[in-house]
Queue: 4 jobs
Job 1
Amino acid sequence: MDDLIRKAAVLEEALPYIRRFHNRTVVVKYGGHAMTDEVLKESFAKDVCLLRFVGIRVVVVHGGGPQINRMLDRVGIKSVFNAGLRITDSETMDVVEMVLGGGVNQEIVGLICQHGGRAVGLSGRDDRFMRGRRLEPVLAKDENGKEISVDLGRVGEVEHVDAVLLEQLISSGFIPVIAPIAVDSDGRSLNVNADTAAGSIAGALRAAKLVLMTDVEGVKTKSGDLIRSLDAAEAEELIGQGVITGGMIPKVRCALDAVTLGVEKVHVLDGRRLHAILLEVFTDEGVGTELRRSGQR
């Protein structure tokens, strides 16, 4: 009986959050270890279905870097690097599109459908809903320490997201599962960072939440303690102080861009934790780090 009472208490705690986010949009960037561990993959699909069944409009944007690398090795395409930066040439882009828009995307769609959800796979090429442009050449240092300009090839940034197609699918009860591939003005596909794509899509949908699943707990202090909540000004200060470093900087920048576009809150959380999304959305404490606009509570 005590176990049943505890379960009832969990549902009771979730009730105000279910009410608050009913018919609101949550965009989830799915990536990292959660995409490769079989138990976590099943758990993620079930959690996404649960969110949809309680009336939350869910959109999934996924990565797939390790899967791309494995396929490149399998088909014998050697990665090209310049000053330590990977170059995405046309041959590599064909593999990227095949893996992200094909295998990875359809596996996620299949898992969600298997657990009762209605999912449909997309990339930015569908109805050209996510348009982009190639990144400008970046400065890097070659093996001799000389600064050079490097063209990354078919790597892009999002210029515009047309949310009409996504709104139609969501309103019809579907969960859009989106590969981060944009299309340029000439109709050519571009590989886009999945966090950036998710942020742009969340902004276009005016999402209540953007959830960035990572392989770390969230943003931490210099002493290693998890920071539960940050506003934009505090985050910028921590970047300037060198507290936020390395790969966490682009994730935080992505979060700040998303709140600028109109997303209410962004959550950086550990996708290795079972039911991380549910714990973030439906509990008082939540998990990971919440980022919000300056002055917002």
Job 2
Amino acid sequence: MTYEEAINKIHSYLVFGSKLGLHRMKSLLGVLGNPQDSLKIVHIAGTNGKGSVSRYIYSMLQECGYKAGIYISPYIDRFTERIEFDGRQISPEDLAKYTKTVTDAADAMVARGEESPTEFEIITAIGFLYFKEMEADVAVLEVGLGGDGDSTNVCSKPEVTVITSISYDHMEQLGNTLEEIAACKAGILKDGVPAVVCVDDPGAEAVIRGVAEKHHAPYIRVRDFEARDVKKSVEGYSFEAELDLSALDPEYGNMKTGRVQLSMQGMHQVDNALCALGAVTAMKLRGWNRISPEKMLSGITRAVQPARLEVMNRNPYVIVDGSHNPAGAKCLADTVLENFRGRRILLINGILRDKSYDEMVDEYLRFEPDVMTAEVPNPRTMDPKDLAEVFRSRELYSSGRRSVGVLESQGQMKEFVSGALDRYDLIVFAGSLYLMGDVRRMLKDLSEKN
């Protein structure tokens, strides 16, 4: 099987949709010898922030000398981004090799009358098998959707679990209230395993705490941590932190980190970093002896996450951000206002039609940009003309104080952006992550030509 054949084979499972539930995954992994049972796991769920928290944890564990793997979704530029080990993406040859093994097992399941695994389940199984074969010391797993029924939730005894945030997204699968969504995500909590939780809503947090108590899981509340002397910059935020891990041991209620320097921007990244610091410190207290405060600090600085407030150019500033739900749009708006208030700003926005686009538009309005809407390369894209009308319905645009336009193609976007670079202090590409891969390639091409 070639790399291209592997990608086509994986995508052929898209016809089975996105389904929660673990019976298919357990059956598939059983055929493969249950590779997940030989792995040490860090398991991360949450509405927003789980990708960045996963990256912080992965980077810190690598810096501490562990052979670490990371499993994330979706990818931005290349499919192999989803499975990484020891600082390198899975090679095309290895992806082809493990895809054949996993899909042969899936075909055998179907041949004996079982329900076919979904695409995400196939990819997750590839990740488990690959990390086992690479003899990973630890694998950092980002939940795909929800928690309890997600295909990553087959690890019976992770080292630590993390819930980064709870807000509204994927309500058709997870529930219509924050409490229902929280209950779903709390499904990753396990008996006796520390739970690091960063949730603001009191009702949602109460649900998660209740699940933790039921599992006798030490409850590490990130809102009890303290970030002091926060310095904000478009080049990255820094702070000093005090962690409270007294849930693991009463003497660890006042742990100071030293100065934490992030390469990512935004106050939400301070929260994400606190989550990651809490999780890795919990691992140290549970016997991961190579973890040291100095290595944690250098590792967290090295962590970067593509298309999360990613600075792609500095004169003018060009930022790419996959803010694909209202909470993400709020984080973007907060960060823009902290660093670019009152400047000339252009927003290029593409959204999926099943997202809460009205709320997202209201968040973007806070920094008063000119707007161009674009199509997302996904069947679920919102028509950019319809999205433009949503912007035009707001007074900022109906009054003519700011402009709204539509980009009809990727070629037109490239031409427009090339001409806009000398007219704005900041250009923001925001919305669906499915759009950001094309945007990043376009921007790199423009940079090379200039």
Job 3
Amino acid sequence: MSVRVDTSLHPLHQFCFCPKCGSSHFVEHNGKSKHCEACGFTYYFNPSAATVALIENQRGEWLCVRRAKEPARGTLDLPGGFSDMFETSEEGVCREVKEETGLTVDRVEFLFSLPNLYVYSGFTVHTIDMFYRCHVGDVSAARAADDAGELLWLRPEEIHPEDFGLLSIRRGIEKLQAMRPFQRA
């Protein structure tokens, strides 16, 4: 499934200098790349990898967080964040869950991915958000930390996608709600 996006939001328009040699002769090569006329380097801009965790407790409730920081401060979210360099997406989602909730993930299952635009400090970051079902042991150890201001266990049928501040998470919640009921592993 592809999403139609305003091409003025394409990140290549924000880069004026070659990242290899610094030349200002850095011109559009095609819709995905820019080419440096000075050194010959062609740069292809790709989305950043981000992760999203769906954690379900024994009562079938989903773990949601209230965002403590911008963007979308104060809105609901699912635990997750950017994958770090030299880390797999699965390692990234486990790390993010630990940082935001204190919970240790013992198993992950890939569900689906969605493109997203994440505005950080006025800069639009194109991401590919990978949604995982994360299995954790004892959920009673959950606590809000890092950029999660509050943790909430919510019944899926009572969750309103519009309460989530990030577009891909809203779309992901709708998709997750349509997938219900989950098979418990």
Job 4
Amino acid sequence: MSTQQASSGTTLRKFIIASVLIIVLVLAIKGITYYLRYYGPNVSDKQEYLFIHTGATYNDVYNTIRNQGLVNDTTTFSWTAHNKGYTHRVKPGKYHLHKGMSNRDLINMLLTGRQEPVNVIIKNFRLKENFAGFMGKKLESDSLSIINLLDSTRYVQQFGFTPDNVYTMVLPNTYKINWNVSSKKLFSRLYNEYEKFWTPERKQKAAGLNLNPVKVSILASIVDAEALHDNEMPTIAGLYLNRLKKGMKLEADPTVIFAAHDFTIHRVLKKQLIINSPYNTYMHTGLPPGPIMMPSINAINAVLNYQKNDYIYMCAKEDFSGYHNFATTVSQHLINAHKFQKALNERNIKR
């Protein structure tokens, strides 16, 4: 072999080796780029949640992510979104972000709609409007759409309610609800919880009182409004059940306050007692057409498991402890009422 041939062979080998190294380097760079685009950390710590509204497009999602700085590199996010087909498969919801999430994990979460439900703690709000306003702040559905359903005779009657008593369906409790739930699906969820609560045993107890679940809840709302302390609820429930059995007016001050729609009243006066309202139990016999507040579960159970007593009258204790003096006769009640009125006067409480 000549020197020229040997040199040519060496050059060829060097060329092949260089070409291989270049190919390996290019593949390595592509591999690293691919890895970083898909698996590398990209989500920032600017926001804990990404909210995607119902009807949002990919452009809406991208603009939100870009404007709020939710990812460090929007280009790789967009590249991943297009490559995984997310641009035409947007799902609304509340999505929990973690600092350092990769584009792959983020897109997979959005693609599958793996949102984090909202932990909603429903307390016994006084009015339907209070409840709707609270839910409107917690969920995507606005308060107006919720209250419109609750006030719709045609809608609520399919569940066996009227706009007056539909509020008895909402039970104070802790619920896990998807942020983007529609108002109708929210209603259905609450109704399902209501149906679970009213077991055959509870319905049987209600029937034993000549009441149905709705009427039990209406009475429970009055008991709840009267009782500052839960341990007094069964006693108050027993008193009101005694009045119902005797065909007496309930004469419950909280119903008068509800009828007046003035919840600053601390002392019910004669002018309030003559308010012409179906909720004024000083004027009308029996239960009002709906609850005067969202009754607590404790109050409902207090009615179902009421204390058997002979009480007909009650009056707040003069020590302002929140407890009541109970009586079986008018004469004893007048003594109790005088003591409380005197205490009000001494504290200059006029209304």
